[in-house]
Amino acid sequence: MPLFEGTQQQYYGSQSFTTSAAQAAGGADAGEYVLTFPNNDTLQNTLGTMPINSSDFNVTVNNVATSNYTYNATTYTVTLNSPVSAGVAVLITIINPDLGNYQFISLPTIVNNFMISYVGSDKIIPRTKRSNVAFHAQRAIQELSYDTFKSIKSQEIELPPNLKMPLPHDYVNYVKVCYVDNAGVEKLLYPTRKTGNPTALLQDGAYSYTYNSDGDLAIASDSTTWSRFQNSSNSNSESDTDNYRNTEEDFNLVEGRRFGLEPEMAQSNGVFYIDEQKGYIHFSSSLSGKLISLKYISDGLATDDEMVVHKFAEEAVYKHIAYAIASTHTSVAPTYIPLLKKERFAATRKAKLRLSNLKIEELTQVMRGKSKQIKH
């Protein structure tokens, strides 16, 4: 039995029907079209299952879009509210099909496969609960997301005047932060170590700390350090480069005194710093109103749709689960634990090599630059 279920047309997000006989408008004899997208790992839309409501797809009748239909979310049936002649072609298209999902395998399938292959009276793990397998499977996905899986996500916003960008809910670490110019080119931004947003304690006129009704220290929402950094921009008539250099005095190139210049400071794109405690990315004032792009690492457990495993790393997840259960379960023979630990390490290394996505032609093209002569 093949792993791929459904048709190629369904995979690309559409299903077509041809009316064999004339149908009346509405009622039991109206034109009813049942969506049969397989509800499995190989054919899913962005919702992860069948379309839930009519906003997930479009309907066209003889290449003409229509909204005159009724959708039954229980039976996945689309009923046209106007008469349909014989031979009419009806096309139902999912708005955002989940293309490329065949390379992944879902968490429930991982758990089912593990229970079948590893758990049993004559298996390595004599007995364990499905809930234990599910827990360790999620832990495996989380650990492998940091440095093995392709777990990089991205966000793009227009930076507001307050120069703050909220951290995503599933943020773990950033890959790169940049702004996008008018040509769509990403300009890399660098983190700054020259400023920050420390906790600002409120003081009275005698410089003594003030307290709230609970006896805790009174704290301002933003520090004076951040306020000064935020308000250090010049007028809009000045160029971004001058604006940025005045914002960051230490980054001024100073003609004739460039010895010891730090390369990360020899740029005028702008800088940022991340306030992990308050959950914001702060940017220099020259970036106000610009398009900011954030690429970051996710833990892979934010939503049900994200808890998937690339097939190159499927075996590594099984080995993570097996070792985790064996090392915490008394029913597993202790002699198996060192073996499973070695197998986990080997499977993880193999998955990392498979997912590294190195292409010999691309490497060759990059390495050709090493043969260039640098003239002094």
Please characterize this protein's 3D structure.
It contains eight helices and 16 strands. 23% of the residues are buried. It is extended. Helix 2 (107-118) packs across helix 3 (130-147) and helix 6 runs antiparallel to helix 7. The chain has helices spanning 8-11, 107-118, 130-147, 224-230, 240-247, 314-326, 336-355, 360-367; strands at residues 14-18, 32-34, 57-61, 64-66, 69-72, 77-80, 89-94, 104-106, 152-158, 164-166, 171-180, 186-191, 271-275, 280-283, 291-298, 308-310. It is of the alpha+beta class and 376 residues long.
Please give the order of strands in the largest beta sheet. 9-15-11-12-13-14-10
Write down the domain tally: 3
The separation of the N and C termini measures: 66 Å
Low-confidence stretches: 233-249
Judged by helices, strands and strand pairing, the structural class is alpha+beta
> On the 0-100 scale, what is the average pLDDT?
80
What's the gyration radius in Å?
A: 29 Å
Proportion of beta-strand residues: 15-25%
Order of helices and strands, N to C? HEEEEEEEEHHEEEEHHEEEEHHH
What is the helical fraction, as a range of percent?
Answer: 10-25%
Overall, the morphology is extended
State the total count of DSSP E strands: 16
Q: Please give the count of helices.
A: 8
Query: Major β-sheet, in short?
Result: 7 strands, mixed
Task: Please describe the structure with a list of short key phrases separated by commas or semicolons.
16 strands, 3 domains, single chain, seven-stranded mixed sheet, 8 helices, alpha+beta, 376 residues, four-stranded antiparallel sheet
